[in-house]
Amino acid sequence: MMKKLLPFLCAAALALSLTACAGTMNNSMADAASDVTFTFTDSGVTAAGETNTGYEIDDTALTITDSGTYTVSGSCADGSIKVKKGTTGVTLVLSDLTLTSADTAAITCGKSSEVTILVSAGTTNSLSDTEQNNDETYPDNTDAENAVIKCKDGSRVTLCGTGALTVTANGKNGIKSGTTTDEDGEASLTIRDLILNIDAPVNDAINAEQLLNIESGTLTIDAADDAVHSDLELNIGADGTDGPTIDITNCCEGLEAAELNIYSGDIDITATDDCLNAANSDLSGYDFTMTIAGGTINAYTSGGDGFDSNGDLTITGGTVIVWTDNTADNEPLDADGTIAVSGGTVLAAGGSAGMGMNLEATQPCVIFSLSGGMGGFRGGPNGTQNSADNAQAAVSNIAKGATLDIRNADGSSLYSAEVPCTVNYVFFSSPDLTANESDTLCSGEETVATATAQTGTVSTGMGGMGTFPGGQRPNGEQQDAQPGEPPEGFDGQTPDGERQELPNGEVPEMPGGERPDFSDGERPEPPEGSQRPEAGSAPADSGASGTYNVDTTPAA
Length: 556
Known about the structure:
Largest sheet: 21 strands, mixed, barrel
Oligomer: single chain
Distance between the termini: 82 Å
Structural class: mainly beta
Number of strands: 42
Shape: elongated
Helix content: under 10%
């Protein structure tokens, strides 16, 4: 009875897996049954089914030469599967396959090919290589592909199904895809649905040169270098979906791309360098972007920035928790451009003394600095001081293992967690915050600091305050800092708020040694397009314009 049922069960599992990948299959692929079933052994490959065309077998090497659906199973200590250059409409069904390749990729998708690698439901599969599959360490190996699964230039590859696949990269990379060229066409790699485990002790777990989409599935990654890398574009999840579950247990950098977009998913990252990085040193003058629109990200780094964008960093939704166990050399959030926060829940904290950033916050944010670095927003709507009251701090930091708790004015907890590292700095944004209301940072039941939640713009630099010289102009443009110190004995404001006269009625020197000439009683006209402030209006750096500067006054 079981023998009669077995073919039916196998066919049902294949149909289920094909349905899971149907979104990327053309009609011919969707309609095709399994044309051939291959079985790998250490002594060779055997074929069953339509055995006349569409493939070639050379000992333990299988080459697919025509479109169709091909099921592969068995076990082989030195074998390989290749899809010939230019071959489209190919589905490789992995069904309890254990395959190691000694000196090349276990699976190679040739240039300009179109391939779906489908991991059959209910099956467990394993692909691996050896250290010889690396042309840098073995330059005489002309067959080296530097990856367990190699997708060449112009190939369009989808890795999917509902079964389990383990990739062990002893040579260099786990999965490697190529780039788009005029000759070979557009290249892309898409991952969805399957259970994918990648161990990459030499280099990257997943490395793409063009477009990489991780839409869904469960991924567990341990990598020596990047866990997931794309030279150009990396998309995680999609709007309106649960997205993938990605657990990066170890890596140098977690997710890296010139354009990094996270729409959904549940992502955990443990890194020794940047957890998220929008960068590519080979691209000059490129508009690097990092966008987080949804999902849940829990990230920890022992030695880099939490999130590092060589351009803009935009957070519009989701839950973002990032910890940096390091000093002021690295920051929880770092962007060469603008950090824009308009939604979601964001906690960025760690050992850093602060963050150098241009922040545009339409959602309330609060900043606590416990080590005399950058505190909260400076300059409220009426020109008042709204900074972290760190002079009242009972402790200089929150120790590893202690509880961090952020509470609103009513004493309600907005966020609470056991900290994985020493915390000197906390940035928090949430729709539960109320602008212009005071919030409290606690360690257990002990008050550490208070600060006022604000919206607006913050411009800071590490170790200094971003006032207009060296900070923001009223129009938001960056202005270079001007040299020079105030005259000796000048301390700015008298207690009654009147301007203090300079010694002997002198006029301070201007940058470059020049002084303004008001001898005709006329004031200089403002730049074209601007207006003089009305009498009694707040100065440009008071906060009345919506621009806030971070207080860098050390804690007493």
